[in-house]
Amino acid sequence: MIDLHTHVLPGMDDGSGSVAESLEMLEAIAAQRISHVAATPHFYAGENGLEIFLDRRAAAAAELRRYCRRAGLPKLLLGAEVRYFEGMSRTEGLEALRIEGSELLLLELPFSVWPDRLIGEVSELCRRPGIQIVLAHIERYFDRQPPELWDRLWKAGALNQCNAGFFLRWRTRWKALRMLERGRIHFIASDCHNPSTRPPRLGEALEAVGDLRGRLEENVRELLPALEV
Q1: Are 178 and 149 a contacting pair, CB within 8 Å?
Q2: How far is CA 43 from CA 22, 131, 142, in A?
């Protein structure tokens, strides 16, 4: 399995602050029998140009990989958690932010009511060749959006990622399992930021889903075939 959404690259965002923290998270992920980790630091178009971001990401990954050669650590793949911005469906170079070895682009939407222009923009992005949109941590938006907006995004072809905590909190676990059973959740990821307050817990979530885990593994095989997981 792959942890599709993590902030393990040191010094990139509000995630890992050091190589030591990154290694501690990767060791915890390895202990959960996760074979691949997508490093998805936040990309904010208004703060970093694409080239600047890619250079920073490459430098952070190179620094971390110097210490990742020990046996048993998951394979590190590069990606990004891309914050929505107007005009992104027409922006060149977004393909460089896809998760390595796939067409998956992890998209973070605003924590506000989504206007029609946003839904239209994301729908247009879903039709862009070579990009498969994955909506990040969708459980955070449920109380803010009317059901019809979700239907429009799902019909446009967006896939959904939920964080491990959605399956581990007793108040939300039943809803998470029902959505997974109905095919509304395509990926579970840890969205880990550090080893203490936001640690990787994907392994616990995979245990919690029980027999439904097969659906997640099928999505990984279909949408990330180059990983050979």
Answers
A1: no
A2: 19, 16, 23
